[in-house]
Amino acid sequence: MRVVVDYRPALRARSGVGEYVHQVACAFARRYPSDSLTLFTSSWKDRPEPSLALTCPGAHISDHRVPVAVLNYAWHRFEWPAVEFLTRRRFEVAFSPHPLLLPARDAAQVVMVHDLDFLRHPERTEREIKRDYPRLARAHTRRAARVVVPSPYTAREVVDQLGVSERRVAVCPPGAPEWREPPGVLAVDGYVLFIGTLEPRKNVAGLLDAYGRLLARRPTIPKLVLGGGAPPEAQRWLESIRRPPLAGHVEYIGYVRDEDRQRVYNSARVVVLPSHEEGFGMPALEAMSLGIPVIVSRRGNLPELVGDAGALVEPDDVESIVDALERIVSDDDLAMTLSARARERARPFRWQRTAEAVRQVFDEVVRERTGAA
Predict the structure, then answer these.
(1) Rounded to whole angstroms, how far apart are CA atoms 218 and 111?
(2) For residue 48, what is the DSSP state?
């Protein structure tokens, strides 16, 4: 099978979409070496990591020095140029890890919807996403041969909100990382950790408010560590942690590179993800796979993912976040119980299984296109 994947979200610091496309592409390359896999990249200044050839063995990397904004404008408005023209290769499947089609002449087009926050709250998004996704996502997902989603929750959203037929939606959950070292013992004296892009959807403001209130009650609570990219709208939060009462108690460590992630997680007592919306919740899964208790919002896919392996809170109710934080940082028995449950809950999630599920989707759309039974 000849497959092309839009790898551009993974070129820079990988957020959830970038991590998904990178991991599933590499797992696909290892699992199906006889398939022809092309990773399409395009940027004026960002180039693929040299190690990509090793992590995705056998994949052809088609890299182009074309600005992302320029190519997106042409693709989103004119659906031109076709990916076959740019790569000088032919494909049976063209996979886009976002809701808009990857322009192709002959290939079956498969898209992915991670969540629909861009549709309900476009003000939380930026640049091309705000400009194009709300306007085009419905039409593109309905035209796609399949819509891949990370969770049953997002599948229901795609059917209900975008009007896509249920039979054309495929759930392909992400996997937990293959950590370099075996999970250790929970750091009972560790910090409170937030991992993710510092953006309004992640409810960073609510987390800082909750931590500040708990700090006023319990001045000896562990520090709060924020890890993740900081877009321009995050500057107000970064300024607030430099001033009392948060100064000296909250640390921003920036984007956490892949080689540092396990160390950062292993030093945490609890991971907090109080998002307003999550199509899946990869930081929660990563933490759980290392046996770290999680506090997550009762929104999106998070309740299904976490189950009884963490504490559920209302993202708009700051006191519920305060209460959950206080319970887990002060009760060692509770923390250890949640730690054991978390590891067990995360066990089934593996990137090889994701690659197998995605490959099945590709096989189905190729069979449909060729008329095979």
Answers:
(1) 48
(2) -
pLDDT of residue 345: 97
Confidence band (pLDDT; 50, 70, 90) for 372? low
For residue 17, give both structure tokens: 């979409």
User: Helices 16-31 and 351-370 sit at what angle, rounded to 10 degrees?
Assistant: 80
DSSP SS3 for 5 = strand
pLDDT classification of 370: cutoffs 50, 70, 90: confident
Six-digit token string for 111: 């898209």
- Whole-model pTM above 0.85? yes
Domains and their CATH numbers in the chain: 2-175+350-370 (3.40.50.2000), 191-346 (3.40.50.2000)
DSSP 100-132: S----SSSEEEEE-S--HHHH-GGG--HHHHHH
Dump the DSSP string for 216-265: HH-TTSPPEEEES---GGGHHHHHHTTSTTTTTTEEEEES--HHHHHHHH
Whether the per-residue pLDDT at 373 is higher than 70: the answer is no
Question: Other CB atoms closer than 10 Å to residue 311's CB: what's the count?
Answer: 22
